[in-house]
Amino acid sequence: MQTFLAPMLFKHRRCHLITLQTFNLRSEAKHSPKGRVYCDTCRAGFETNVTTYIKGAKVRLECKRFGTEKVERALDGVTDETGTYKIELKDSHPEDICEVVLIQSPLADCNKIQALRDRARVELTRNIGISDNLRLANSLGYLKDVPLPVCAQLLKQFKSADDDDDDQVKA
Prior knowledge:
Pfam families: Pollen_Ole_e_1. This protein is of the alpha+beta class. It contains two helices and ten strands. The protein has a single domain (about 30-170), classed as Sandwich (Immunoglobulin-like), CATH 2.60.40.10. The strands form two sheets. Strands 1, 2, 5, 7, 9 and 10 form a six-stranded mixed beta sheet that branches. Strands 4-3-6-8 form a four-stranded antiparallel beta sheet, with no helix packed on it. A hairpin with a 5-residue loop joins strand 3 and strand 4 (about 70-80). The protein is elongated, with a radius of gyration of 24 Å. The model is unreliable at about 15-25 (pLDDT under 50).
């Protein structure tokens, strides 16, 4: 009887250790906020098909304590050639409000921070039902000093499409 129990006990302990190791890996999971920084070439207030994405734009991930607004954690990032940033964070922030904010544009003619596009909130905890480490953030935008010449026609198309939608709603 004793020879039968020894292997069973060993298997039980081995499974228990695997479970503990898996738990430890999850508790140390990284979070990776990822997003893009763009130049609003039409000063439209949103991305269009002539929007350009900014290489070398500086962003910062800021996590503020809920209630006090005190910055508990700040990490800087820079966009790649596609205007995309990805910031690696090794810890979780369930009690904090975390946002990626614009810091600096490398473009002299597109460095005015666009209202309501200067920050993007990201959830950096697993307690919300998202198991993936990647956290996609809304795009952040700067305004171009002078809109591109094509923008007037482009925005007319958007206006025309809006008018068509209004006609369909009324009918």
